[in-house]
Design brief:
Length: about 180
C-alpha cells in the first residue's frame, strides 16, 4: 500500500504568545509549544529559542516500553536507557546521539517525564555542525498546558501518532518566525 506523506509541516508562532504556536501537516492542525524565548533566526546554544527556517526530519525515536511502535516513513529507532544527546560545545560529538554514561554535558533521551517517548530529530545545525549554534532540537511530546520548551517544538501526546503517520522521508518542517 502506497502512503501519502505531507511534503511540508509548517509551524506558526502565535501572535498572542511567542512560546506557543500551531503546527499544520496537511489537514491536521495541532497546537504546539515552542521555545521559552520564542523563535529566532540566529539560534544559539542555551538561548531557549526554536530556530526559524526549513529543515529535514532526519529520524524518529520512541520508547518501546511506553507505547507501540509509531507508524512513520522516517527511519525509526528505539530509545534505550543508555542513550543521550551531546549538548557540550567542547565535545567532538556535539549535537549527536551519544552513549551513556557520558562525561560531558548531554540530554538524557530515556526520560521519566515522557517528553521523549516519541521524538523526531529536526536537522537543525546538523550539516555541518557548528559548535555553539544549538543542539538537540526535536519535535517531541508537550508538557501539560503546553509550557515552553528549551527550543524544540512539542505537540500533544494524544495527537503525535496521527502526525507521525503523515511524515515521510521527503517531509520538511518549516518554523516560521
Amino acid at each position: 500500500m502506497k502512503r501519502n506523506y505531507v511534503d511540508l509541516i509548517r509551524v506558526h508562532r502565535s501572535p498572542l504568545d511567542h512560546r506557543r504556536g500551531r503546527l499544520q501537516a496537511g489537514n491536521l492542525v495541532l497546537p504546539c509549544a515552542l521555545g521559552r524565548s520564542g523563535t529566532r533566526a540566529d539560534k544559539r546554544e542555551g538561548d531557549g529559542a526554536s530556530p526559524v527556517g526549513r529543515f529535514r526530519l532526519i529520524q524518529a525515536f520512541y520508547r518501546a516500553d511506553h507505547g507501540p511502535r509509531p507508524r512513520t516513513g522516517l527511519p525509526l529507532r528505539r530509545i534505550g536507557p543508555n542513550d543521550g544527546w551531546s549538548d557540550d560545545v567542547r565535545d567532538r560529538r556535539y549535537n549527536r546521539l551519544v552513549p551513556l554514561p557520558c562525561p560531558t554535558s548531554h540530554e538524557t533521551m530515556w526520560r521519566d517525564d515522557h517528553l521523549y517517548d516519541v521524538v523526531i530529530d529536526i536537522a537543525w545545525n546538523r550539516g555541518p555542525i557548528v559548535k555553539g549554534r544549538g543542539s538537540a532540537i526535536f519535535l517531541h511530546l508537550a508538557r501539560p498546558g503546553f509550557t515552553p520548551t528549551e527550543g524544540c517544538v512539542a505537540v500533544d501526546r494524544s495527537k503525535v501518532r496521527h502526525l507521525m503517520e503523515r511524515i515521510g522521508p521527503r517531509t520538511r518542517i518549516e518554523i516560521v518566525g
